Structure formats: C-alpha cells, structure tokens
UniProtKB/TrEMBL annotation:
GO MF annotations, alphabetized: phosphatase activity
GO CC terms: cytoplasm
CDD domains: HP_PGM_like
Segments forming a coiled coil: none
Pfam families (UniProt xref): His_Phos_1 (PF00300)
Organism classification: Eukaryota, Viridiplantae, Streptophyta, Embryophyta, Tracheophyta
Protein name stated in the entry: Phosphoglycerate mutase family protein
Family: Belongs to the phosphoglycerate mutase family.
Amino acid sequence: MEASADTALYPLHRCKTVYLVRHAQGIHNVEGDKDPSAYNSLALLDAHLTPLGWKQAECLREHVNKSGLAKRIELVISSPLLRAMQTAVGVFGGENNTDGVSAPPLMVENTGVYPCDKRRTITEYRTLFPAIDFSLIENDEDALWEPDVREANDSVAARGIKFIDWLWTREEKEIAIVSHCGFLFRTLSMYSKECHPTIQEELSKLFENCELRSIMLVDRSVLGSDSSSWNYSGMIPAE
C-alpha cells in the first residue's frame, strides 16, 4: 500500500512557523478607502496609525497573549516604516521588560504626531524606536525607493522570495513578521501557485489591517543547515 499523495511528512527541524501580520490601520488607509489614489500620495508616505489602528493593535496583543503565541515567538521582524513598527511594538513589545530601568523604551512618546510626508532615515528611526535592532539594514536611506516610481509587482514578489530564503539563515523556529498588504499578497501568491485551489485561496487572500495568519515554512531546498535539537540517535554509549 502506497502513502497518500494528499499528505506529506517532513523533518521538523526543516520547518519554521511564521506568523504574518499586516500593520494596523494607518491614516493612509482611511484616505485610501475614500480615494484609492491616496495610496500614492507623498503626503501620506510614512503614515502613522490611527486611533482605531492602535485599538486593533491592542486587540491583537490581547490575542497573542491569551493564545500563548507571545511566549512562543522568538523573533519579531518588522518593515522599517512607521505604521509597521508601531504595530510591532503595540502587539509584540514590552512584556519581557519588567524592571523598567535597564531596558530601553521600545518607542518614544508621540510618534503618531510626526509628519507623514517624508521618508525617514534609519538614524531617525533609531531615535523613535530605541530598542529596535536596525543593524541588518545596510544603508541609512532606502536605496530601493524611488519617489516617482511605484515598484512593479514582480519586483515585490522577488523581494518576498529573497526574504523567505533569508529566514532560513536564522536559527529561530517561530518568527513574527509585521509587513504590508501588497508585500504579503505578492509573496504568498508566488508560493501558492502549486497548491490545491483551496490552499491557494487561503494563502492569496488579501490581509485586513492587523490580521495575523500562521504559516509553516518547509525547507525543501535544504537552505537551512541546522540539525534537530530533539532527535536522538539511539546509539549505545561507548564504554
């Protein structure tokens, strides 16, 4: 009897659990719902969260704590834009900083009143988010961003695939990612092409603001090199 083609087995150490989160509602979402062209407005380039967006982040924070996810997630990765980092701090930040003295603040006060019509440098973001590690970003300014050119969908998808491959260089097994609707949609659409139509629909559905979805990454190309910490060889100990 042959194994069913509808199921599959894979070594656990070649899998990662990833929790994908779209940022909470930003002021650009409010304007974009009225007029889609607002999403291209330079006046809303680095939009901050709305009061509703902060409420959404609060609700998701409550969910990740009640469900136990907060204790399982080993790493949080955020898009370096204000609305995404505000969401990351609002949802995942702060629980481990218990003494209030030695730990730096995750975010300075009043980040929601900063101008939205400029692309901030990483140096500026470090001032706003002192506890976030920006060391993986090589340039102080976004070298990929062009103010008058909207990135092509294929380019977004290619960045997404490169990012997923990079995740395999990390040792963490459960990772949260706070990003944007377009990036998540284009990336997941690429990975869903060979899936069952039902799975395609699940993966490719557009994210709502502050929506969280959990997915399993499988290292089919052996990009990761770490071995299992749970497997046991069963060999007889040497005398």
